[in-house]
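TL;DR need structure tokens for one chain.
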Amino acid sequence: MKKPFIGNAPDYSDRKNWLARPDAPEKPVDLLFLYPSSCNDSKADVICAIDNRSMVKGAARNLSQQAAAFEPVANIFAPFWRQVNATKLPKMSFEEVDAAEWAEPRTDVYAALDYYFENLNQGRPYFLAGHSQGSRLCFMVLSEYMREHPEHYANMIGAYCLGDSLTKSYLEENPHVKAAQAADDLGVVVSWNTEGLANIGRSSLVVSPGAIAINPLNWRTDDVPATADLNLGSFRPRLLFHGLRKLRVKADAVLYPERGTVIVTEPRLKKYAITAIPGFRKFEPVFGPASYHGCDYSFFYLNIRENARVRADAWLAKAEEQVNGSL
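>> reply
TL;DR here they are.
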């Protein structure tokens, strides 16, 4: 039985409820982006308001640090949506977080998708992308919304659900959802969580039992290591500002199948773990001692951009073949 919607959704015909909404899309494909936990207002409720100043500011910063990876490839659309306040996460169980995300966040995201497909998409193929809490909403969308709207799902090039777990049980429960197996397969979910070796065996809110992933450098699903030579460019988020700062040291990537995460072994990058950042030590019980959760996009930023281009080109070439074949 479908869960009821909680609360009233924002009016997505109003531009103020969109973080990004191009007036005249010029590219042949779109990106629908759901930002990660961006509300850091300790005085706000567990579910922050759609116009919460902290969330609005944080969402814009995350757009510039994550969704911008797709900017040369796709028209970027990003709705504002109510979400779980990040300041409350350290005291919440996984079950409490999950229940909160199925409330107002789901209501808003589904309404935004309805408006996008009915009024903004114009039939273009698209990517779905998110990070952390945004990826968890993406997984809801893929399992429930897309099951109910196969006409929209059929036009999805791929979904980049980083910073949360795609699990074996999820795929079994949702046989219409497929995990990426290569750099150019289509209609699939691309997913990983980035960690250091010290996180192996430790609890993390975003690493679930049975998690599976793909290596963002060699696009393999086994444990064959990818050296930093394959990395087109590693960056780190600027914590208080928009954009990224390029790193002189590039991340390597080794898939750890037993845990379903991507391990970065380069020791010079340890200072970018969440718990190494001043003021973020409190998140060690949430993410573990060596989580690169904030760098899931930035460590592999240019490889994500190139991969989006590869998948978009493959989709458009396939579409052109089908048109030519029908003539």
